[in-house]
Amino acid sequence: QVQLVESGGGLVQTGGSLRLSCAASGFPFRSYTMGWFRQAPGKEREFVASIAWTGSPYYADSVKGRFTISRDGAKNTLYLQMNSLNPEDTAVYSCAARTGGGSYKDTDYPYWGQGAQVTVSS
Protein backbone atom coordinates (compact mmCIF):
# COMPACT_ATOMS: atom_id res chain seq x y z
CA GLN A 1 0.00 0.00 0.00
CA VAL A 2 1.36 3.37 -1.05
CA GLN A 3 1.38 5.88 1.79
CA LEU A 4 2.50 9.50 1.93
CA VAL A 5 2.21 11.24 5.29
CA GLU A 6 2.98 14.94 5.68
CA SER A 7 4.06 16.57 8.92
CA GLY A 8 5.59 19.83 10.12
CA GLY A 9 2.77 22.22 9.33
CA GLY A 10 1.58 24.86 11.74
CA LEU A 11 1.24 28.56 12.45
CA VAL A 12 4.07 30.98 11.79
CA GLN A 13 4.43 34.76 11.57
CA THR A 14 5.24 36.62 8.38
CA GLY A 15 8.93 36.22 7.62
CA GLY A 16 9.24 32.99 9.55
CA SER A 17 10.22 29.50 8.46
CA LEU A 18 8.80 26.00 8.51
CA ARG A 19 10.02 22.63 7.27
CA LEU A 20 7.51 20.12 5.96
CA SER A 21 8.27 16.41 5.84
CA CYS A 22 6.63 13.66 3.82
CA ALA A 23 7.22 10.08 4.93
CA ALA A 24 6.83 7.65 2.03
CA SER A 25 6.25 3.90 2.03
CA GLY A 26 4.90 1.14 -0.19
CA PHE A 27 6.74 2.09 -3.38
CA PRO A 28 10.34 2.44 -4.66
CA PHE A 29 10.87 5.97 -3.36
CA ARG A 30 14.35 6.39 -4.80
CA SER A 31 13.18 5.90 -8.40
CA TYR A 32 10.14 8.20 -8.19
CA THR A 33 9.74 11.89 -8.83
CA MET A 34 8.31 13.68 -5.81
CA GLY A 35 6.40 16.93 -5.66
CA TRP A 36 4.75 19.46 -3.37
CA PHE A 37 1.44 21.12 -4.18
CA ARG A 38 -0.72 23.53 -2.20
CA GLN A 39 -4.33 24.66 -2.14
CA ALA A 40 -5.75 27.72 -0.42
CA PRO A 41 -9.48 28.21 0.31
CA GLY A 42 -11.32 29.26 -2.83
CA LYS A 43 -8.33 28.62 -5.06
CA GLU A 44 -7.20 25.80 -7.32
CA ARG A 45 -4.44 23.45 -6.31
CA GLU A 46 -1.12 24.76 -7.54
CA PHE A 47 2.35 23.39 -8.10
CA VAL A 48 5.02 24.35 -5.58
CA ALA A 49 8.12 22.26 -6.29
CA SER A 50 9.29 18.89 -7.58
CA ILE A 51 12.43 16.81 -7.40
CA ALA A 52 13.39 13.94 -9.67
CA TRP A 53 15.24 10.79 -8.65
CA THR A 54 18.43 12.48 -9.83
CA GLY A 55 17.90 15.21 -7.25
CA SER A 56 17.22 17.93 -9.82
CA PRO A 57 14.75 20.46 -8.34
CA TYR A 58 12.13 22.58 -10.05
CA TYR A 59 10.18 25.44 -8.44
CA ALA A 60 7.16 27.57 -9.09
CA ASP A 61 8.08 31.21 -9.66
CA SER A 62 6.11 32.23 -6.58
CA VAL A 63 8.39 30.28 -4.23
CA LYS A 64 11.71 30.34 -6.08
CA GLY A 65 14.48 31.60 -3.84
CA ARG A 66 12.43 31.06 -0.67
CA PHE A 67 11.61 27.34 -0.67
CA THR A 68 13.97 24.38 -1.00
CA ILE A 69 12.86 20.87 -1.89
CA SER A 70 15.03 17.89 -0.98
CA ARG A 71 14.82 14.15 -0.46
CA ASP A 72 16.53 11.53 1.69
CA GLY A 73 16.54 8.14 0.00
CA ALA A 74 17.76 6.31 3.10
CA LYS A 75 14.82 7.65 5.12
CA ASN A 76 12.24 7.55 2.30
CA THR A 77 11.39 11.13 3.18
CA LEU A 78 10.69 14.26 1.15
CA TYR A 79 11.24 17.73 2.61
CA LEU A 80 10.18 21.29 1.87
CA GLN A 81 12.11 24.02 3.66
CA MET A 82 10.04 27.21 3.57
CA ASN A 83 11.69 30.53 4.41
CA SER A 84 10.50 34.14 4.27
CA LEU A 85 6.90 33.04 4.54
CA ASN A 86 4.07 35.48 3.86
CA PRO A 87 0.27 35.24 4.24
CA GLU A 88 -0.06 34.30 0.56
CA ASP A 89 1.69 31.03 1.41
CA THR A 90 -1.18 29.99 3.68
CA ALA A 91 -2.60 26.74 2.29
CA VAL A 92 -2.88 23.01 2.72
CA TYR A 93 0.37 21.50 1.44
CA SER A 94 0.35 18.00 -0.02
CA CYS A 95 3.17 15.76 -1.18
CA ALA A 96 2.80 13.57 -4.25
CA ALA A 97 4.70 10.85 -6.10
CA ARG A 98 4.94 9.65 -9.68
CA THR A 99 7.10 7.55 -11.98
CA GLY A 100 8.99 9.20 -14.79
CA GLY A 101 10.55 12.64 -14.87
CA GLY A 102 9.65 15.83 -13.11
CA SER A 103 6.28 17.44 -13.69
CA TYR A 104 4.34 20.51 -12.56
CA LYS A 105 0.96 18.94 -13.43
CA ASP A 106 -1.00 17.53 -10.51
CA THR A 107 -2.72 15.09 -12.86
CA ASP A 108 0.64 13.41 -13.50
CA TYR A 109 0.93 12.35 -9.85
CA PRO A 110 -1.12 9.25 -8.91
CA TYR A 111 -0.09 9.11 -5.24
CA TRP A 112 -0.97 11.79 -2.68
CA GLY A 113 -0.68 12.46 1.02
CA GLN A 114 -3.45 13.78 3.23
CA GLY A 115 -2.07 17.32 3.41
CA ALA A 116 -0.66 19.58 6.11
CA GLN A 117 -2.01 23.00 7.04
CA VAL A 118 0.38 25.94 6.89
CA THR A 119 -0.90 29.25 8.22
CA VAL A 120 1.12 32.46 8.02
CA SER A 121 -0.15 35.36 10.12
CA SER A 122 0.32 39.03 9.29
Task: Summarize the topology.
Layout: E1 3-7, E2 10-13, E3 18-25, E4 33-39, E5 46-51, E6 57-59, E7 67-72, E8 77-82, E9 91-98, E10 111-112, E11 116-121
Parallel strand pairs: 2-11
Antiparallel strand pairs: 1-3, 3-8, 4-5, 4-9, 5-6, 7-8, 9-10, 9-11
What does this structure look like?
The chain has 122 residues and is mainly beta. It has no helices and 11 strands. It has strands spanning 3-7, 10-13, 18-25, 33-39, 46-51, 57-59, 67-72, 77-82, 91-98, 111-112, 116-121. Strands 2, 4, 5, 6, 9, 10 and 11 form a 7-stranded mixed beta sheet that branches. Strands 1-3-8-7 form a 4-stranded antiparallel beta sheet, with no helix packed on it. The radius of gyration is 13 Å and the shape is globular. The N and C termini lie far apart (40 Å). The mean pLDDT is 96.
Features of the shown structure:
122 residues, mainly beta, 7-stranded mixed sheet, 4-stranded antiparallel sheet, 11 strands
Number of helices: 0
Mean pLDDT: 96
Instruction: Determine the oligomeric state from the structure.
Output: single chain
Give helix % range: under 10%
Summarize the structure.
This protein is mainly β. The chain is 0% helix and 50% strand. The protein is globular.
